[in-house]
């Protein structure tokens, strides 16, 4: 029985691995299967501290990155509370979580309003 439990634990997805459909049981202990970008069908295993958001069909976990960490596509839910996922350099595909950002966000039709980190 112990060998079966160890094998089941070894089959669990690790931090940063893709997981399916928000199934937290697919991730190693202490991790959740959370969203990290605008595609609501893509998930990865991540640590979770106050990372649940109310979704259309109930709670959804979001992988939250810290101040200064990379984030996806201007998606503020990918950053810890108080931070925005903003642009910070000339690369239009580069974003990071920042607490200090400009009052006038950049407007991109494909993303809507995106913060500009100071």
Number of domains: 2
Helix content: under 10%
- Could you give the order of the helices and strands? HEEEEEEEEE
Specify the overall morphology: elongated
Put the structure in a nutshell.
The chain has one helix and nine strands; from the N terminus they run H-E-E-E-E-E-E-E-E-E. With 118 residues, it is mainly beta. It folds into two domains: 2-61, no CATH class; 76-114, no CATH class.
Question: What is the topological layout?
Answer:
Layout: H1 2-10, E1 18-19, E2 31-35, E3 43-47, E4 52-55, E5 58-61, E6 84-87, E7 95-98, E8 106-108, E9 112-114
Antiparallel strand pairs: 1-3, 2-3, 4-5, 6-7, 8-9
Overall description:
The chain is mainly beta. The chain is 8% helix and 29% strand. The protein has 2 domains: 2-61, no CATH class; 76-114, no CATH class. The strands form 4 sheets. A 3-stranded antiparallel sheet has the order 1-3-2, with no helix packed on it. A two-stranded antiparallel ribbon has the order 4-5. The protein is elongated. The model has no long low-confidence stretch (mean pLDDT 83).
